[in-house]
């Protein structure tokens, strides 16, 4: 197989410097709001109950597998090999340490079929949103969407980790997974890619994909509280 992606990013004028930082600044209100939703507040202060956390893990596990596939798509679409390798590193993290975390944590926290189905149905908005972004804007849209999700988690978990709060061990491990040097490097990599996007990708498009993902994250984070019909 030739070392070529299915499609290359569109050619255009030189990329605008600092686009990622400017994007995050423009969307700071949405990031702050998303970091303050009920679930993340309860994970931060350690008050989340065991059933809610277990349901959250079911939803998060499903999306982490989606994220791994998206990172694989980005690997294939990225024509520069050194950058493709960085996408491969993201896949390795998602199917390695994170998959191991879910295997261990979910084994101790079984969720019955009806509850799992209800949670996954509600949480599917996150997958639907990023797949729609991919259809709309391809590689740049996926990068912007993943940057929104990962920037949110880096911000939330960094702030949570700085607090001297007693939390369930699995909650603390989940927060710690999103403050490691490797995770910080992955977020920085997504921001570098945003900086390097060609000028024809407009700020308005980036804002739309980024904010849409945060709206979807809010709905996703509400999924563990969905009422289950008995």
UniProtKB/TrEMBL annotation:
<keyword id="KW-0378">Hydrolase</keyword>
<dbReference type="InterPro" id="IPR016084">
    <property type="entry name" value="Haem_Oase-like_multi-hlx"/>
</dbReference>
<protein>
    <submittedName>
        <fullName>Thiaminase/transcriptional activator TenA</fullName>
        <ecNumber>3.5.99.2</ecNumber>
    </submittedName>
</protein>
<dbReference type="GO" id="GO:0050334">
    <property type="term" value="F:thiaminase activity"/>
</dbReference>
């Amino acid at each position: 197989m030739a070392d070529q992606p299915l499609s290359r990013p569109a050619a255009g004028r030189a990329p605008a410097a600092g686009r990622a930082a400017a994007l995050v600044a423009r969307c700071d209100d949405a990031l702050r709001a998303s970091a303050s939703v009920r679930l993340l507040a309860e994970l931060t202060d350690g008050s989340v109950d065991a059933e809610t956390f277990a349901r959250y893990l079911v939803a998060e596990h499903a999306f982490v597998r989606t994220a791994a596939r998206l990172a694989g798509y980005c690997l294939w679409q990225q024509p520069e090999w050194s950058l493709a390798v960085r996408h491969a590193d993201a896949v390795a993290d998602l199917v390695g340490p994170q998959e191991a975390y879910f295997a261990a944590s979910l084994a101790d926290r079984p969720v019955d079929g009806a509850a799992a189905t209800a949670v996954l149905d509600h949480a599917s908005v996150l997958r639907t949103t990023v797949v729609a972004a991919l259809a709309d804007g391809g590689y740049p849209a996926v990068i912007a969407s993943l940057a929104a999700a990962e920037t949110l988690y880096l911000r939330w978990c960094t702030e949570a980790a700085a607090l001297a709060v007693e939390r369930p061990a699995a909650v603390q491990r989940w927060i710690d997974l999103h403050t490691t040097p490797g995770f910080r490097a992955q977020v920085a990599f997504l921001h570098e890619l945003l900086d390097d996007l060609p000028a024809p990708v407009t700020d308005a498009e980036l804002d739309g994909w980024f904010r849409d993902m945060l709206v979807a994250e809010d709905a996703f984070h509400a999924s563990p509280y969905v009422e289950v019909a008995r």
